[in-house]
Design a protein that fits this description.
The chain is an alpha+beta fold and 496 residues long. The protein is built from 19 helices and eleven strands. The protein starts with a helix and ends with a helix.
């Protein structure tokens, strides 16, 4: 009993600290916009002599044309390759070789595009020439020079990731190395060189084979999303289909890069041991003269309303998996906040409805979760995932999940449960934002997707306004058979 009391006191203290932190965040975030359109968000924290520096470009795979699929992810790889001064021993000597590589690679692709009419001997000749040119290029390449410089100067966590909605480059640096970060990243934004493009394209193709085509779970996710979206580019894989990757060229990538990876499409978050005034001056000095690119246009395609359940099945050598998805609106729609409540009510923690019912009580599944996907800039999906526990089947698990969803439509959620959700949400958000990197992530993510980082402050306020009636209304509106997509992995021996 004493331990429980101590835990309750500690939890209450933490939630109090969370509320104070959230209330103060609006005053602590300092904003600055450069003349070229780059948005700078800063939070001064002196807990340790470190800084998290994130650059979020508001361009992701959803912004690719049909002949560009996979480019955003490909550029994530390529922007680690260096610039005209970094990653090369002699760019002036390297540049003509890069141009000859591009000419040769495009000639190979044109010949292959002829299919049966293509000349195998010419393809073999051109491929041998390409290999020779790539070996010549390698003489000038300095591998991983960005990473080496950062590591020598005490930086950690140097990485990047691409999503449907954006591309982000991240690093943690000692506070006295912020100018080094500014010098490197501004050079990358001005002078990126997409060297080793076709060898890296082979790496991406292998990534696709390994992570998607060879894994039933990966194939299920791709097929599930592709089935749910008939028109909108959210249905296309971020990495691209294999044929998409095979037809990417350095020329296409450079055009995409120069069009969108520019300051007017960039959000920078610098969180940690900084002086905001000096940081603004530093960023202005290094990034201020970079020319803006083309603003990323909104996707014009609107996904048609789904008018019937869709199902997809993947046969593979893996345990059964189940996905159930429903189309839903995204922020700033009020219903998006209601789905946040439904998400936590169903699968957040051991006492959540689906976890308690499927995993603990009936033992139909080994795990269950829910999330919004595949992006947030456009209407998306509320997805429930589960792994059936042998000998139970995906059909049994699906039936149990649908029964719980039906309860949301008819049985009002207790206000006590809503308050518990709000408390847990506050706790989770505080934990995620406790690190410099965590806060930098949320600042850049919501500035890009929601239009303002203030979504961080407003989110809990909006969730607190959700009523039991809202939950029932949203469940009745969206959690319907006609709006449902179901995906299942079936073991090969079962499918015979």
């Amino acid at each position: 009993m004493k331990r429980l009391t101590l835990f309750m006191v500690a939890a209450a203290c933490l939630l109090s600290a969370v509320a104070a932190s959230a209330a103060g965040l609006e005053d602590r975030v300092q904003e600055h916009t450069l003349k070229n359109g780059m948005k700078l968000l800063m939070v001064e924290r002196h807990d340790s002599p470190t800084i998290a520096a994130w650059i979020r470009f508001k361009v992701g795979s959803v912004d690719e044309r049909s002949d560009e699929r996979g480019l955003a992810h490909m550029l994530e790889h390529m922007l680690f390759k260096g610039t005209k001064t970094l990653g090369t021993k002699n760019y002036a000597a390297e540049k003509p070789i890069l141009d000859r590589i591009e000419t040769t690679a495009q000639a190979i692709m044109r010949e292959k595009a002829l299919g049966a009419k293509g000349d195998p001997k010419r393809i073999a000749q051109l491929s041998a020439q390409l290999k020779k040119l790539q070996a010549e290029e390698e003489k000038y390449v300095v591998k991983e020079e960005f990473a080496q410089i950062y590591a020598k100067n005490g930086a950690t966590g140097y990485n990047a990731f691409t999503s449907k909605d954006g591309t982000t480059y991240i690093i943690n640096v000692p506070s006295n190395k912020l100018e080094l970060w500014a010098a490197i990243e501004s050079d990358r934004m001005k002078n990126a060189v997409l060297r080793e493009f076709y060898t890296e394209r082979d790496v991406v193709m292998e990534e696709r084979r390994r992570s998607y085509e060879a894994e039933p779970e990966g194939r299920l996710w791709e097929a599930f999303v592709d089935t749910a979206y008939l028109a909108h580019p959210y249905g296309q894989p971020t990495i691209g289909w294999m044929s998409d990757i095979e037809n990417l060229t350095r020329t296409k990538a450079e055009n995409f890069l120069h069009r969108y990876y520019a300051p007017n499409n960039a959000i920078v978050a610098i969180v940690g041991d900084i002086d905001p005034k000096k940081t603004i001056a530093l960023v202005e000095r290094y990034f201020g003269d970079i020319k803006p690119g083309t603003p990323v246009p909104p996707v014009a395609t609107v996904e048609p309303e789904q008018d019937g359940e869709r199902r997809v099945e993947i046969i593979g050598d893996a345990e059964s998996q189940l996905l159930i998805g429903y189309h839903k609106p995204t922020l700033p729609s009020k219903d998006d906040y209601v789905f946040d409540v439904i998400d936590m009510l169903l699968t957040s923690g051991r006492t959540s409805r689906l976890y308690r019912k499927l995993v603990l009580e009936d033992q139909l599944a080994t795990d269950v979760g829910s999330f919004n996907a595949p992006g947030s800039r456009y209407p998306n999906l509320f997805v429930i995932s589960a792994t059936p526990r042998l000998p139970h089947t995906a059909h049994e698990v699906e039936k149990a999940i649908l029964a719980e969803l039906d309860k949301l439509k008819t049985v009002p959620v207790k206000r006590h449960d809503l308050q518990q959700i709000l408390n847990k949400l506050e706790y989770d958000e505080a934990r995620k934002m406790s690190s410099n990197g965590g806060l930098a992530y949320y600042l850049t993510e919501y500035e890009a997707v929601a239009g303002s980082w203030r979504y961080l402050v407003e989110h809990r306020q909006k969730v607190a306004q959700v009523t039991p009636e809202d939950v029932m209304r949203v469940a009745r509106t969206y959690l319907t058979r006609a709006n449902r997509t179901v995906g299942v992995v079936v073991k090969r021996e079962v499918a015979k």
